[in-house]
């Protein structure tokens, strides 16, 4: 991703996801609030040396990384910088927050959203809809926005509302009919879960996410007049099953995760959806590795590569090769692991492409380094594992807070096993800092293992400090 980290503010909270298009557009002396439009010089500085067209391309790439759809071009950038667009709609706001972590819209030169609300502002919104040519959101989008609202206790608030994410199928009786709105609601639910998981981890989200999943599968039995809608519902339900399965996986519920992944695979097979099948096998391979079934991990990863052959995505094949490498590492087959790692790096080097699946927004150079670190660790190469884990932490985008915590925990464990207790304790402390915002049983389990390894070094002051803090936080969370 092309990201501009320009003097970010100390805040790093999540964006407010979802929502209707907000009022934007030209405002002069006769505008709804009587204010003149003023050039947005702050946003112009964020663009830096890039041309408006180059910056627009960076915005579109960033949108794809988080599963958003925006029709950004040089003209849109010009309208923002001139002050014509004083407040971005929710989709653009999420993208800009992703590009400039820690910045609020006001920190990017935008006017607070409440300033542009009201009857006159809605008229501007209609003008903007006609000129911007962006993809429309369904009527349910406002419900989805509220369902995935994040705030001070972001994960808890979001989890409490997940059950309303797919409201269209909630009628208990009578004939049901599913259309574009229902398909879009399911797709939006998938995106919201992924965004929340990236920032906060799975704990606290899983139980609430199962209800929209059940409703999504109920929609598969609804009457649909268009084949395209039926296909979107099948794909959306399958992807939602994988997302909910991942929440189970990351929160240590392996049996539940296996069931959800199997359900997604069955959906893929029924629909003849190769992309969904590859994704299901990919997750199955990952789960098998974590559950101590490395041979199954290898077979599932190879099956995923077979399903993905016709998808023309080098990045997907790179990730699937890494999943295979993880299985070989678990089996202790160094030669096969090295071959799969080399193949993964070669494929990754071909760069991103238009055929890359939306769900792979997390897979960048940081993930490549982090997954190799895990392989090296499984093979007992502690020094090389720590080197790759350190790179993964340094390269990770701030949006992916859960992965930053994961790779920092990986680094702590590798340093502890490699005989560097001071450095391991420091990495452990950083992980504890990150876990104030991220809730992941998987990461906490890793950190607990590191604490056990460091127990023999309790006489070292830095190690003792980490162990005391870790023990206190475990007691507090008990």
From TrEMBL:
Top-rank taxon, per record: Bacteria
UniProt cross-references to InterPro entries, sorted A to Z: TPR-like_helical_dom_sf (IPR011990)
Renumbered residue ranges of the record's region Disordered: 1-40
UniProt biased composition (Polar residues): 1-10
Low complexity biased stretches: 13-25
Record's protein name: Tetratricopeptide repeat protein
Protein source organism: Streptomyces hiroshimensis
